[in-house]
Write a structure and sequence with these properties.
There is one protein chain. By secondary structure, the protein is mostly helical. It folds into 2 domains: 74 residues; 45 residues, no CATH class. It has 4 helices and no strands. Helix 1 packs antiparallel against helix 2, helix 2 runs antiparallel to helix 3 and helix 3 packs antiparallel against helix 4. The two termini are 40 Å apart. The relative contact order is 0.11.
């Protein structure tokens, strides 16, 4: 997942790159599982369809039926693992964002708790909340440098 976001400031891009670097192994594994499961399920369903509606009653068709069913079952198991990995990726990215907020020296604890609350209340918009936090942090950083 190598996202190139050109419309956001550099300080936000660096945070996204750090997040991607920490999630990279899981993302690659998840992508492989997704592709492999789709191929296996598709292969299995197509072959089972032709095998079941073919009027031949050979013993080979029973073996093939079992083999295609096994391939389909493995494909569905990989799909389930893929969904589990997606939840893990979401959890790890959320934890990264919360830890990053916790480490900030420029945002007050009251504002941090507001961001935590927003992130817990609206998990689908966690990245937007994180960007909002980063923007506020950058503004406060620039103000503190200008005051010195």
């Amino acid at each position: 997942m190598n996202i190139k976001l050109t419309n956001i400031p550099r300080f936000m891009q660096s945070e996204i790159e750090q997040l991607q670097a920490s999630l990279s192994p899981l993302l690659k594994k998840n992508m492989r599982y997704g592709i492999l499961s789709t191929v296996m399920i598709g292969f299995s369903v197509i072959n089972l369809f032709f095998l079941l509606f073919n009027n031949e009653t050979l013993s080979i068709s029973n073996i093939a039926l079992g083999l295609y069913s096994l391939i389909g079952a493995i494909g569905f198991a990989l799909l389930k693992e893929n969904k589990h990995n997606q939840k893990e990726i979401a959890k790890l990215s959320r934890n990264y964002m919360l830890e990053r907020m916790k480490k900030s020296r420029y945002v007050t604890d009251v504002r941090k708790s507001n961001y935590y609350k927003k992130m817990n209340d609206e998990p689908l918009f966690a990245m937007n909340v994180f960007f909002e936090f980063l923007a506020e942090e950058q503004q406060r950083k620039e103000r503190s440098f200008n005051q010195e």
